[in-house]
Design a protein that fits this description.
This protein has 421 residues and is of the alpha/beta class. The protein is built from 15 helices and twelve strands. The radius of gyration is 22 Å and the shape is globular.
């Protein structure tokens, strides 16, 4: 499905109401036409979403080749090189993601993999991401030990064209590379081979992801006003921030929804958090996205959200996942009514209760329905949220395609490692 439901937001916040669409209609239509034109420009990231047939076929072929040799794919990447793929693979059991460099986590993960039955996908757009290179080096040692003669057949690199350390290594070892188009930034790359290969290894047809992305593009680029979920979401995000709602809570109910929320968190934080200096005056923009897991965080954060400062709005992320049946014995033990026949109904009641409680407390709480547990709906949603981010950036008058704050941290990290100071 993939549907934005903002009825819970209207009327709760002066900064966002149906009338705002009338007031901003010319601006929003202008933004839509600009992004529509940019999506046809090869120098723009959206030109490569959805992926063309040759890209989906390359991912399918790579996955097929790896599956002939291995039953598990180890994906080494971080941030935009992992979060979207993790959402696509949520609930599956044969893809392992190796992200940060926590020593205990990395050691435990590497030791828990049967490398005799494993393959490796190393993902870094630049080819120089430190955490990825370190973890890939450790994974390669284990893979080479298990397959000293044929380890190269079990490795695929995903990167943009360039002279990064990873690209140079792949060329020197004749390791195949799936290309991330140069204009596509890491956090916008989920619909490229970054997400396509892991999903394909797990059994998802990459063409289904491309078709879902096309559906998201049709809604985000061709529809107007309230019918356009990307424009609606962008206007909500910007207007709430302008009204003092500086936190945007992304509350994912279910493993897939929570993984999607983590992907959105990076997308919004890195794309919209900006310091703007104009005529000697400084302005800082960007709502803080905060991910919550449902229903676990009802027992940790809901009290604060309900009775604490009114500086946030909430977007519930839900899906259509019925889950196991509830037998009469289970219902009797838990004190559930007869009408509750599947576990999914309990989860639905939990998010509905949370939403109503937030609204009662004056906290705006809308919902985005991710639909069924399929790649089509998820890919559609990826596109819609990326388009919403670009629209919101235009309203905030910032560039959504850089990350100067992140790069500064990387430079300092490299200096510390090289000099010890």
């Amino acid at each position: 499905m993939g549907e934005l439901l903002l009825d819970g937001l209207f009327g709760l916040e002066k900064g966002f109401s149906p009338e705002m669409f009338d007031r901003f209609a010319p601006t929003l239509e202008g933004l839509r036409h600009v992004l529509l034109a940019q999506s046809k420009d090869p120098s723009h990231p959206f030109y490569y979403m959805p992926s063309p047939d040759e890209t989906t076929e390359a991912a399918r072929a790579s996955a097929r080749g790896l599956r002939r040799l291995a039953g598990r794919l180890v994906v080494v990447g971080i941030g935009g090189s992992a979060l979207g793929a993790k959402a696509l693979c949520a609930g599956g059991g044969n893809v392992t993601f190796l992200e940060g460099v926590d020593p205990h986590y990395v050691q435990r993960t590497l030791a828990g993999i049967d490398w005799r039955k494993a393959a490796l996908n190393i993902i870094s757009k630049s080819g120089s991401t430190m955490e990825t290179l370190v973890n890939a080096g450790l994974a390669l040692e284990a893979l080479k030990k298990a397959h000293p003669a044929e380890w190269r057949r079990r490795v695929v690199v995903t990167a943009s064209p360039g002279s990064g350390r990873l690209q140079q290594w792949a060329a020197s070892e004749s390791v195949p590379v799936l290309e991330i188009p140069a204009p596509v930034g890491g956090r916008y790359s989920v619909l490229s081979p970054v997400g396509l290969l892991p999903a394909a290894f797990q059994g998802t047809d990459p063409s289904v992801i491309a078709t879902g992305a096309k559906a998201g593009a049709d809604e985000s680029l061709l529809l107007s006003g309230l019918n356009n979920p990307a424009l609606s979401l962008a206007l909500a995000l910007v207007s709430f921030f302008a009204a003092g709602r500086s936190e945007a809570v992304l509350w994912g109910y279910g493993e897939r929804a929570y993984a999607f929320a983590l992907w959105v968190q990076q997308l919004w934080a890195e794309s919209l958090g900006r310091r703007i200096v104009s005529s000697g005056a400084e302005r800082r923009v960007g709502a803080t996205p905060l991910c919550c897991r449902g229903s676990e965080d009802q027992h940790s954060l809901l009290q604060l959200f309900t009775d604490g400062p009114l500086n946030r709005w909430v977007l519930l992320l839900t899906g259509d996942e019925p889950g196991p049946a509830l037998s009469p014995r289970v219902k009797a033990f838990a004190g559930l009514p007869d009408r509750a026949v599947q576990l999914g109904q309990v989860q639905d009641a939990l998010w509905m209760g949370t939403q109503r409680g937030l609204r009662d407390a004056g906290v705006p709480a809308g919902r985005y329905d991710l639909g069924a547990s399929g790649a089509f709906d998820l890919a559609k949603s990826f596109y819609i949220f990326m388009a919403a981010t670009v629209y919101a950036a235009a309203l905030l008058e910032v560039d959504p395609f850089g990350q100067p704050g992140v790069e500064a941290g990387k430079r300092h990290t490299r200096t510390i490692l090289e000099s010890g100071d």
